[in-house]
Write a structure and sequence with these properties.
Layout (H helix, E strand, L loop, with lengths): L10 H4 L18 H4 L6 E5 L4 H12 L3 E6 L2 H13 L4 E5 L5 H15 L4 E4 L15 H28 L3 E6 L12 H21 L3 E8 L12 H8 L14 H8 L10 E4 L15
Parallel strand pairs: 1-2, 1-4, 2-3, 4-5, 5-6, 6-7
Helix pairs in contact: 3-9, 5-6, 6-7
This protein binds NADP nicotinamide-adenine-dinucleotide phosphate (NAP).
Amino acid sequence: MHEPTDTPTDARATDDAHEPTDTPTDTRAIDDARALFDLSGRVALVTGGTRGLGLAISRAFASAGADIVVASRKADACDRVAEELSRAGNRAIGCACHVGRWSDLDRLVETAYAAFGRVDVLVNNAGVSPVYATLADVTEELFDKVVAVNLKGPFRLSTLVGERMSAGEGGSIINVSSTGAVRPTSDIVPYAAAKAGLNAVTVGLADAFGPRVRVNAIMPGPFLTTIARNWDMDVLAERTRTFALRRAGLAQEIAGTALYLASDASSYTTGSIITVDGGAQWSMPGGGDAR
Ligand SMILES: NC(=O)c1ccc[n+]([C@@H]2O[C@H](COP(=O)([O-])OP(=O)(O)OC[C@H]3O[C@@H](n4cnc5c(N)ncnc54)[C@H](OP(=O)(O)O)[C@@H]3O)[C@@H](O)[C@H]2O)c1
């Protein structure tokens, strides 16, 4: 039933005696909502920042005022992106790094702190999902690589940076997972398992590094990045017909969620795993445009 309009819904207005005096009841208005998303003076480290979702995130963070450390395996690609971001007025450096190798991660962290003295936002975005013909074709090497890049590396980098954030001015860690973590299919079993592990790492590290460091994950559905080069577009079209938004995502459409999680806009959000999939999680056979 609707609330009658003259019913007082604010207990403080009628019964101050019930309000403990030391309870924070700050309801100040937000004067400048854009300031919530401002990253000026902050430093963001983005792995896999040279292409796809990571590039879109790096550009969005730079546009919000952050200085950026761009990491991927290829030094020239990192330098190219860093140069692009620097032209827009930010400070940005590239650092070649294989995120599956812990010695590379030590070097990445040293490079970032030597250049900027701090990291306020870490985005564990680099990931791989190699194709295989059958499950029996999954080699030990492939399995280990998938786990190293999607799970082992993000865990290690988060602990290295999270400890420093925690001892310093705090920060935000964002893990780029996948909806495959919660809806695995036969073609991505090792990848899905690694991303499910990354979700668990997200929740565990949110507990470990709170209250000064927030740790969250984004679970993207299908996005048209270089990963999509191997996809059968007819199959994708058929699949996305049942999504609420009837299509796959574009890389820049991840940026808003990443910016939310990086910034003060999400100051009370940690240990959360946010799905960004165009409504794919609710799609049903025969739903959407397939009706
Ligand atoms: N696109 C999708 O549909 C989708 C869906 C769900 C989740 N995701 C996740 O989103 C993240 C980004 O995916 P994307 O689609 O943007 O991929 P992408 O276009 O293939 O870009 C991958 C990025 O990661 C870097 N990278 C790959 N292996 C690396 C390694 N071992 N060490 C360091 N950097 C490495 C690549 O640069 P180098 O080649 O120079 O190393 C590149 O910058 C991944 O974690 C992926 O699992 C994507």
